Structure formats: C-alpha cells, structure tokens
C-alpha cells in the first residue's frame, strides 16, 4: 500500500489562506530508502543491500504486542515491527520476521535506528564527528556512497 499524503502545518495553512489559497503544498514523505551496512544474504547467496522502509502506523506498533513470539520474548518485538514496515530489501519484497531474523546483527541495529529516526524524529540525518579533525557534520543514513550527493 503506497500513499502520498499532503501535510500542512498550521503556519502554512495560515500563509496559504492569507494569499487567497494559492500556495503549494509539500507532500508528506511516507517511504524512505536505505542501504544496509552488510546486507541480507538470501537462500541463493545473493547479497541485498538497498531497501525501503515506510512510516509506521499505530496498528504496526500494536499488532506485534498480540504476537505469541513477542509475549514469550519481548526482545522479539523489534523483529516483528521491523518486518511490518520494511517493504523491500533488494529484490526481496516478501519481508516477514524470518527475513529480519536472518539479517546480520549490525543490519538489524541499523534498521532499528533508522525506524526511530524516520518515525520519531522525521528525518534520516545523523550528527557525527570526524575522529581525526573533530569537525561536526550531518550524514544521511538513507544510503548513498561516500562522495555522492
């Protein structure tokens, strides 16, 4: 299910109405691309690194709480939750808890942080500090190679 929703803050709504309704609305971004640090290795040995995660709904956060695996082991909550919001990893579009279980630990940690960033903070940027020169800058966790813009 892919949706494009138009969001307007109260300030923007006032500005648009002040101009007689002639304003452009910016669509709410609901899907975010990412690149896994290591990659998902499928049963044929193919490594998949790029993927897409969508914004979570309230249902996405509530349904896993009824899952017996989560009731038995609360740590499993993140596996079920991540499997609900990741829509694709490489060419794999059937994302289920088994796929998430087979990720390397560093990739699962990346997806957990990515989930938190897009759902709680609303962006995919992270503040980092260069270990050599102590310069602070932002990087985009959504992927891309060094040197690309």
Tell me what the structure shows:
The chain has 149 residues and is of the alpha+beta class. It is 34% helix and 25% strand. The protein is built from 6 helices and 7 strands. The strands form 3 sheets. The protein has a 3-stranded antiparallel sheet. Strands 1-2 form a two-stranded antiparallel sheet. Strand 3 and strand 4 (47-54) form a beta hairpin. Helix 4 (77-85) crosses helix 6 (105-121). The longest helix is centred in the C-terminal third of the chain and has 17 residues, at 105-121. The radius of gyration is 18 Å and the shape is globular. The two termini are 29 Å apart.
What's a quick, concise take on this entry?
This protein has 149 residues and is of the alpha+beta class.
Spell out the blueprint of helices and strands.
Blueprint: E1 5-6, H1 10-18, E2 27-28, E3 31-41, E4 47-54, H2 58-62, H3 68-72, H4 77-85, E5 86-89, H5 97-101, H6 105-121, E6 125-129, E7 136-140
Helix pairs in contact: 4-6
Name the descriptors.
149 residues; single chain; alpha+beta; 7 strands; disordered C terminus; 3-stranded antiparallel sheet; two-stranded antiparallel ribbon
Shape: globular
- Total helices: the number is 6
Order of helices and strands: EHEEEHHHEHHEE
Strand order of the largest sheet: 3-4-5
- Gap between N and C termini: 29 Å
Q: Could you tell me the strand content as a percent range?
A: 15-25%
Please count the beta strands (DSSP E, at least 2 residues each).
7
The overall pLDDT, averaged over residues, is 81
What does the radius of gyration come to?
Answer: 18 Å
Find the structural class using helix and strand composition: alpha+beta
Residues in helices, as a percent range: 25-40%
**Biggest sheet layout:** 3 strands, antiparallel
Q: Residue ranges: pLDDT <50 for 5 or more in a row?
A: 4-20, 144-149
